[in-house]
Specification:
The chain has 8 helices and 14 strands. The protein has 221 residues and is an alpha/beta fold.
Length: 221
């Protein structure tokens, strides 16, 4: 199995290529920027059948999706609860961050709790993890890896000071969904380094002291 991280855009967002090399099939999770770089990684591994999965709708995670779809023929999937964020692509905030010039797009299909996406011998199961956004989704491969978007980071959690973010929902998503996975599960986050479920259960200040999140604006991402 191929798992490769591509750090994209000025906000240093983590895009993941997850693929079955034998089947020449795989996923691109959160193509935030730099579609040509992502395409080079797919070409290097010989991946021809591509599906694009979005953990949530913030522009730094989705701005390359339409162009990569055009380049690869992939279909793009996202939770319908985050479709209101599609207009953020190429918007004022994106422009200020150096990510302008992109037109909003329409996704090809929805992601709901429990949906499974398969490429070769890889199956990713969607787990609803709202809070950072109302339609936040994590993808669990059932074999020790979860792609958590901006829900959970090494030593931190997603921001909840955005419109329609929700601190209590984020804590429930982490504690009642992600923390139910085995401790050794690798967490591939939307920004920053990987971590593990066990490490965050022991050391994450926001889940060990929920008042930090509920009483304030959350973390830094």
């Amino acid at each position: 199995m191929i798992v490769e991280t591509i750090v994209t855009g000025p906000l240093e967002e983590n895009c993941f290529v997850v693929a079955d090399e034998k089947a020449r099939a795989g996923f691109v999770i959160d193509p935030g920027w730099n579609p040509e770089r992502i395409q080079l990684v797919l070409n290097r591994h010989g991946i021809e059948d591509v599906t694009i999965l979005l953990t949530h709708g913030h522009f730094d995670h989705i701005s390359a999706a339409a162009k990569l779809r055009e380049m690869t023929g992939a279909k793009v999937y996202m939770s319908p609860e985050d479709e209101f964020l599609l207009k953020s692509v190429g918007g004022d905030t994106a422009m200020m961050m150096g990510m302008g010039g992109i037109k909003p797009f329409i996704v090809d299909g929805p992601i709901h709790e429990g949906d499974e996406f398969t490429a070769g011998e890889i199956t990713l199961k969607a787990m609803a993890t709202p809070g950072h956004t109302p339609g936040g989704v994590s993808f669990y491969d059932g074999k020790g890896r979860v792609y958590a978007g901006d829900c959970l980071f090494q030593g931190s959690v997603g921001r909840v000071d955005f419109p329609r973010s929700n601190g209590p929902d984020l804590l429930r998503s982490i504690i009642e969904v992600l923390y139910k996975l085995p401790d050794e599960t690798i967490v591939h986050s939307g920004h920053g380094p990987d971590t593990t479920i066990g490490r965050e259960k022991k050391t994450n200040p926001f889940t060990n002291h929920p008042e930090l999140l509920i009483g304030g604006t959350g973390s830094f991402l």
